[in-house]
């Protein structure tokens, strides 16, 4: 089958995209077409997967979803915040949903529901989804960094995910401090031990303000104000580190934290430009902010489907 025949064969196919985050599982349907618009949204707590067999829970959610919405999908695409093996099946380590560790999520679920299941890093879906809304010049290298429950990052190199062996970009586990705080991965002093959703929850609880409004305290000469500055400084240092290592032409910063009310985007951007973009290597690096929010993962799911289904057809 030629590439053109393959592209024609998948037009109009309905996909279910499941974006499993550290806090929420979000599900939507999307059809492969020129103008891809996600629909039939549902949302569940990720804690559901911790209660019992997570594959059985996913099967149940998908069955209910397809029946309720009258959808007959050609495939299911799942984004997970985990380290996955090179076959994109076996979950090596999922720090925020430990019940998934050691499970062959794609093949086990495929047996249960009878249609192809494609699994990939949640951040790869997000980055593909954000990229789909942009026009980049030739030879681009796109770095995406997403601040949410944890830290997600990935790199697209001319439309292909940049991979060494099995991992995405485990930016959250870059060593940040000597003998530092314990991280969800079990080590001490990782960046994610200092930059995660739980840290923001602690700041908001101590300041008696709802977490959704915590950045209203940005710039205040108070304990909360100082803790928020330290938090964003740590985020900015991490973005700077990633730019220094990857040397991208474009950076997209996103995730639930960056989308919060009063989040100091301008401050972070200035910090990063001052620290990382003043050398001859990175001075032309373009920094932008995620625009598609929660929708990005669903659009990215279509890109993953095209990539993986095409590979299967050629085997
Ligand atoms: Zn870590």
Automatic annotation (TrEMBL):
It comes from the Bacteria. InterPro entries: ATPase_NBD, ROK. Belongs to the ROK (NagC/XylR) family. This is ROK family protein. It comes from Sediminispirochaeta smaragdinae (strain DSM 11293 / JCM 15392 / SEBR 4228) (Spirochaeta smaragdinae).
């Amino acid at each position: 089958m030629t590439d053109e025949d393959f592209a024609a064969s998948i037009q109009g196919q309905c996909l279910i995209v499941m974006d499993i985050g550290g806090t929420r599982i979000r599900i939507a349907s999307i059809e492969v077409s020129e103008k891809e618009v996600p629909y039939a949204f549902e949302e569940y707590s990720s804690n559901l997967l911790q209660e019992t067999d997570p594959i059985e829970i996913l099967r149940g959610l998908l069955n209910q979803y397809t029946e309720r919405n009258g959808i007959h999908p050609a495939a299911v695409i799942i984004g997970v915040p985990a380290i996955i093996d090179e076959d994109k099946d076996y979950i090596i380590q999922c720090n925020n949903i430990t019940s998934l560790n050691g499970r062959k999520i794609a093949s086990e679920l495929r047996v249960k529901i009878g249609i192809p299941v494609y699994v990939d890093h949640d951040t790869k879906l997000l980055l593909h989804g954000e990229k789909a809304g942009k026009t980049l010049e030739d030879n681009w290298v796109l770095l995406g960094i997403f601040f949410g429950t944890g830290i997600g990052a990935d790199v697209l190199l001319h439309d292909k995910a940049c991979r060494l062996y099995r991992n995405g970009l485990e930016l959250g586990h870059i060593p940040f401090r000597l003998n530092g705080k314990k991280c969800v991965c079990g080590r001490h002093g990782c960046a994610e031990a200092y930059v995660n959703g739980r840290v923001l929850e602690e700041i908001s609880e101590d300041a008696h303000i709802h977490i959704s409004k915590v950045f209203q305290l940005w710039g205040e000469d108070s304990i909360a104000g100082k803790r928020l500055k330290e938090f964003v400084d740590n985020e900015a240092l991490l973005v700077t580190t990633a730019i220094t290592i990857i040397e991208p032409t474009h950076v997209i910063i996103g995730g639930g934290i960056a989308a919060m009310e009063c989040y100091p985007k301008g401050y972070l951007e200035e910090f990063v430009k001052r620290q990382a973009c003043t050398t001859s290597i990175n001075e032309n690096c373009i920094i932008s902010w995620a625009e598609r929010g929660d929708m990005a993962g669903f659009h990215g799911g279509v890109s993953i489907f095209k990539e993986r289904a095409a590979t299967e057809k050629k085997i």
